[in-house]
Amino acid sequence: MTQEKIWLSSPHMGGTEQKYVQEAFATNWVAPLGPNVNNFETDIERYLNQDVYVGALSSGTAALHLGLIMLDVKPGDEVICQSMTFSASANPIAYLGATPVFIDSEYDTWNMCPVALEEAIKDRMAKGKKPKAIVPVHLYGMPAKMDEISAVAKQYEIPILEDSAEALGSAYKGQKCGTFGAIAALSFNGNKIITTSGGGAMVTHTKALKDKAVFLSTQARDNAPHYQHSEIGYNYRMSNICAGIGRGQMEVLDAHVALRRANHQFYKELFAEISDVTVLTEPSSDFYSNHWLSAILLTSFEQREALRLAFEVENIETRPLWKPMHLQPVFENSPFYGATVSESLFEKGLCLPSGSNLKAAERLRIEKVIKDFFTL
Ligand SMILES: *Cc1c(COP(=O)(O)O)cnc(C)c1O
């Protein structure tokens, strides 16, 4: 008998989502605009608590794409991007005909190494091109070293496009992730910390930038009775149905962050006596991770694969860490700066089931696999 699948991270409804969706039907706002969209944006603005302006979009990828456009990235430009990430951090750079310049990670947070970042900027400038933007990521919810990264960005006057797709609810020195960059992207895909089934948002610091994002996301229509266009537009706005799900999800966001953090605590205690394993943990009290995914490092690629397969046999989903972009065939011609940190993390790392809906009985099944594997 195969047991029910334990997912890495699956949607977790709070209970009020359908009320907002039904409201949309009842009022016939079944469109990519309406009260749910506006209210969802206000909910996020209040949550982030930094006088930000939020535009709800169809995906996090769309937010990154429009963010790069608004930072004036053009064909032939270079954009600096964390190498260890999901491909959606880098793909929009390629959509625009620009070249990603990838940066290695550091071992504390697994995110963009500020030292390699500066080295890259100096070298690209010496080669005659100043990068147009810097895209750091808060991997698995762990905030990047934003003080150091921001200091480099400021010194060379390069704007930050913050990929906060995995980090809604995380904070660095008390400031919420998604509020550090000139522009930031959030994601509400099905596996993220909250979901709208699919969706994303752009976070900006001025109403003008938010308005620009909404304008571009609704086909860039000029103000005229007929359809008049002076710019290329996109169909990237969020649907009022999806935003209804989002409003319900915002009501349980903090509770779900607490549950994910409890999963992390569970893994920390479980692995406390297993010297082969390190759990990705906040390096200091400056960092507050939503622990979207709990991730561990093993001693070798072989050991990681063996553990992954041991989980698979028990119908438990785990996943290797993001494969660095500079090692992906599609980006093989892009420059890379740093050493082998992200490569080594990829070889030895594994993400474990981390859903806010993970049940006690499921934890027991996970615990058994781990204890058997390390024969405790
Ligand atoms: C999920 C994710 C994205 C893309 O978000 P979508 O809403 O799926 O388009 C971008 N960057 C990172 C790091 C992500 O995890």
How would you describe this structure to a colleague?
- The chain is an alpha/beta fold and 376 residues long.
- The protein has 2 domains: 17-250, 3-Layer(aba) Sandwich (Aspartate Aminotransferase, domain 2); 253-373, Aspartate Aminotransferase, domain 1 (Alpha-Beta Complex), CATH 3.90.1150.
- Helices cover 38% and strands 13% of the residues.
- The protein has 11 helices and 15 strands.
- The protein has helices spanning 17-26, 35-48, 60-70, 91-95, 114-126, 146-155, 207-217, 240-271, 301-313, 341-348, 360-373; strands spanning 53-57, 78-82, 99-103, 134-135, 161-163, 171-172, 175-176, 183-187, 200-204, 278-279, 287-288, 294-297, 319-320, 336-337, 349-352.
- The strands form 4 sheets. A 4-stranded mixed beta sheet has the order 1-9-8-5. A 4-stranded parallel beta sheet has the order 4-2-3-14. Strands 10-12-15-13 form a 4-stranded antiparallel beta sheet.
- Helix 4 links the parallel strand 2 and strand 3 (99-103).
- Helix 1 (17-26) runs antiparallel to helix 8 (240-271).
- The chain is globular and about 70 Å long.
- The relative contact order is 0.18.
- The structure holds pyridoxal-5'-phosphate.
- Pyridoxal-5'-phosphate is lined by residues 59-61, 85-86, 88-89, 137, 163, 165-166, 187, 189, 200.
Which helices and strands, and how do they pair?
Elements: H1 17-26, H2 35-48, E1 53-57, H3 60-70, E2 78-82, H4 91-95, E3 99-103, H5 114-126, E4 134-135, H6 146-155, E5 161-163, E6 171-172, E7 175-176, E8 183-187, E9 200-204, H7 207-217, H8 240-271, E10 278-279, E11 287-288, E12 294-297, H9 301-313, E13 319-320, E14 336-337, H10 341-348, E15 349-352, H11 360-373
Parallel strand pairs: 2-3, 2-4, 3-14, 5-8
Antiparallel strand pairs: 1-9, 6-7, 6-11, 8-9, 10-12, 12-15, 13-15
The structure holds pyridoxal-5'-phosphate.
Protein name: Aminotransferase class I/II-fold pyridoxal phosphate-dependent enzyme
Keywords: Aminotransferase, Pyridoxal phosphate, Transferase
Organism: Flavobacterium difficile
